[in-house]
Amino acid sequence: MRFSALLAMALCLGLGARAEAKTLLILDSEGGDYVGQGALRQFADTDGSFTAQRNFDEGVSLSFDGSEYWTLDFSAAGDVLLAPGLYAGATRFPFQAPVDHGLDVSGDGRGCNELDGAFQVHEVVYGAASSIDQFAADFVQYCDNSPRKLTGAIRFNASDSIPDVVDDDADGAAEIGDNCPGLANADQRDSDLDRAGDACDELDATFVAFQSDEGDYIGQGLRYHFNAANALLLPDRNFDGGTSFRIEGPGGEYWSLDFTAAGGGQADPGVYEGATRWPFNGPLEPGLSVSGAGRGCNTLTGRFEVFEAVYAPGGDAPDLTKPPVDGLVGQLLERHGDKVQAALDRVDAIRQTARKYL
Fold it and tell me: Fewer CB atoms near the end CB (10 Å): N or C, the chain?
């Protein structure tokens, strides 16, 4: 079975407690990045003065004035107020198209003519008039079509509970710019300059990745990336004839994903709007469910897009009494032959667990 899909879900929201405030700027530039000149910079409020105000696109403009002078701008597409979440596909502020988010990090006399990037807002509190009371974001910026990136973090009166840099896989690379999220690769090596790290290039024929906004109950505001290097991935047909993925992630953390077309049956390439919780979706609604780490939704709404789907002849599900040689074990035999026996032992264990979900 081959299956690839992009999904979005609207789930439960939660609120965190406010704590002590902090202000800082971190800039981590790869060699070859023009703006950062390949240097690591860290500035606190004891190193100079920070300012923050609303910009004319209803976003946030910040500056640092110390031994160097830096400016940062963030804005949402459509000139709406920023809110916590991921803003992918950003281009240079203030010249971004109406459908694009705006981003610009410039300083020490250097800036981009054009750029692309992304930013994650962790916290934003708009004050009276044009003032900004609190702001916290991580960002990645590629200048003038360069494959070399500038990543960083800005905290302005931010809650102390927010880390200085969010790094979910603890490899020293900020998560927003990590070229192989979910798999520790401290060197961030990218030999083919495709912005995907070498550590992920050979493993990502089969993977599951998702981004959770802050306040989302299921994902807890984190990014996840599972592939053959850090998880067991078991694709199957669910009892509605759709597609299921069962995942044993790092530390024995289990996840499951299900996709079905309206009325049951396989999800062929296309966009599936108005999905509700599988297997309780109505006959006219696509079915969708993503749960894991002991968390799931009672009800949900969402959408998913299938890019590719190849099913076994006759639609039969794989035989879970045998290793799926054309799937995970096939990958291990090809790429990690010296570890195959250990992998087979783990497959036997996960096979028993997987039956509980099928």
Answer: C
